Amino acid sequence: MEMNGEERIAAPRQLVWEALNDPDVLRECIPGCESLEKSSDTEMSAAVRIKIGPVSARFTGDVTLENINAPESYTISGEGKGGIAGFAKGGADVKLVEDGAETVLTYDVKAQVGGKLAQLGSRLIDSTSKKLAGQFFTKFNEVVSAKAAGA
Fold this sequence. Notes:
Number of helices: 3
CATH architecture: 2-Layer Sandwich
Strand content: over 45%
Shape: globular
Distance between the termini: 38 Å
Strand order of the largest sheet: 1-7-6-5-4-3-2
CATH superfamily: START domain
Order of helices and strands: EHHEEEEEEH
Number of strands: 7
CATH topology: Alpha-D-Glucose-1,6-Bisphosphate, Chain A, domain 4
Protein name: Carbon monoxide dehydrogenase
């Protein structure tokens, strides 16, 4: 599965960068996130509960930040296991570009799923993934824009 998009955020790039690296902000914005703990500057572990079609699963896994070019870009990659539901693994290249007082965040995601999830069909997985990404970026935009407005 591949997916890309962009989000215009009413905040300076440095603030957006800090939020992308803040486990508290990410925990608040990731749909179904039960826990997200930072174990180092480049590693986090997470537990997320999601529902894709008829399959509901709790995924646990690790996330790694690579190719870090602060405050412009990084690659985030991870793998989650969902028991009998299967697994998901992949990564995203995230870029931040200043545009006046705003920041344009672009993302390019590549992911794979296996197990029971893979049997659901790519159309359902793609539409659910796009919906979850949309929920994340909408919430992330709200949180970061509110922080910028309050600063």
